[in-house]
Amino acid sequence: MKSTANEQLKNEVLSSDARKSQNFFRSDLILHHALSRYTTLPAWEFMYEKWEDLGELAAGPMNELSLLADHKPPELIKRDALGRDINEIRFHPSYWELMKIAVESDMLRVKWEPDLRKKLGGANHLLGFATFYLFAMSELGQDCPLCMTDGAALLLDRFAEEEDKMRLLPHIFTENHEDFRTGCMFLTEKSGGSDIGRNLVKATQLEGNSYLLNGEKWFCSNANGDIIFTLARTDESVEGIGGLSLFLVEKTLPDGSRNPIDIVRLKDKLGVRSMASAECIFRDTRAKLIGAEFMGFKLMAEMVNLSRIHNALAAVAGGRRAMIEAYQFLSFRNTFGKNALDHALLRVKFEELAAIHCGSFYMLWRAIRAFDKASLGDEREAQFLRLLTPMLKKHTAETAVYLVRESMELMGGMGYIEDGVLPKIMRDVLVLPIWEGTSNIQILDMLRASKKSEGLDVMVELIHQQQDEPLSFALEELLETGEKLHELPRDEQEVQGKYFFERLTQLLQIALLLEEDTSQNPEIPPVIAYFRRQLVGEKLAKPISREEVERMIGWVF
């Protein structure tokens, strides 16, 4: 017996009017609000079409390319047919298609091309990060090599000799993907992991600032990168972080031959499988000393801190994409006789997820603005950023994992199936609390920053500026508990520091939300209301309306 058309319509997952965003840039009202407020008219006009194009690609073709690159990870070709070591990493064509999209989006050009830095000065990093954000909503794996390239550009720009800067930077800000060269950071070693002071790789001077490196690096992300920054010891008698120097290693030597780097194996990672992480051994690898001897960790920290902002951006973008997948799905899913979003428990969950995203988003954007200002010499913003960066990295990485997991549950079994993007996003975001320093490392860094910089004072002042009585009261209460934090025994200091900075993160988010123009950002008032309840431990009095949920999510499609 043939089924009728009406019966077939009933036997569908989504209603007949189901649709999804066709352009992530057009759809994201929260991103639009931030960019319209914090970019100049010339900057907006220069980037608008690029964001439009990337937003369309991210919502469409990039999805298939991203899933392909994930399912077809890179391979290490150790030797050629004649048994010669070639250490070549080969990628699926989808990887290079994604990289081409990244280059043509101008995400790096707007940051580092000299004429654009002058023309759009003051917000170059914000413009670049906004482009990274749209890209990361569709592909988190390649966000890592692009992040490494941004960090390499930073070190070249600030610390490299003029000849190296003029020769290498154009390959980073190029508009031609065939001329593009990526950067990477070979930092971690077996001996210490996060304890960089135990690194063992040796540097032997040839002449001047030319050296040979020998030793193993245990986690080399973007192992196929062309411009490598690494740390090594020029004098084994100088122990700890203070004995490390920074070196530039280029994959290709001036005569066109390969610089000898032995790739032992590629890491078989849980997520971000599209990019290559490897174990590498320097074997008389040619390198150039960057900056003064024994200042390596201090210089490399510049790249690490930029990478932490990138880590946060990936976390916010990944969490956003997961939430949007669930929101778009449930907007056209009927359960128990009505649309899914008409069920109170689902609305309460979306309220929580939307508030988490919004708080993280504005904290991220505040860090990016501080980075732009600090890059132009604003010392106050630099001090603020010193503390904000580890706070941001820890919070966004942890909440991204939660956002994706909860979004997956909202979609039920459909969220768990590999046909969709959520399983890939789940695997990808799980690395974010680990990369660029685990959450515990971030706590230790916050303790150092609060002791050795003025970042805490600047942050406290920013919160007080909102002249919000409940917020100020909570801050003063917190400061009383933290007043003698640095006088405690080390173990107590670390444990109490975790609570202190997690609470401070919550207060900072409220202050940053209050700082925004709520008349232009309709998602913010219900988000502030949510955070106020969290501040005092108040339980939800009544379910949020569907209209309020839609306003908080800030997504049109």
Give an overview of the whole structure:
This protein has 3 domains: 156 residues, no CATH class; 113 residues, Butyryl-CoA Dehydrogenase, subunit A, domain 2 (Beta Barrel); 255 residues, Butyryl-CoA Dehydrogenase, subunit A, domain 3, CATH 1.20.140. It is built from 22 helices and 11 strands. A hairpin with a 2-residue loop joins strand 10 and strand 11. Helix 12 packs antiparallel against helix 16, helix 18 crosses helix 20 and helix 20 runs antiparallel to helix 21. The model has no long low-confidence stretch (mean pLDDT 95).
CATH architecture designation of the largest domain: Up-down Bundle
Superfamily (CATH H level) name of the largest domain: Butyryl-CoA Dehydrogenase, subunit A, domain 3
**Individual helix count:** 22
Mean pLDDT over the residues: 95
Q: What is the CATH T-level topology of the largest domain? A: Butyryl-CoA Dehydrogenase, subunit A, domain 3
The top-level CATH class of the largest domain is Mainly Alpha
The biggest sheet amounts to:
5 strands, mixed, barrel
Shape: globular
Uncertain segments of ≥5 residues (pLDDT<50)? none
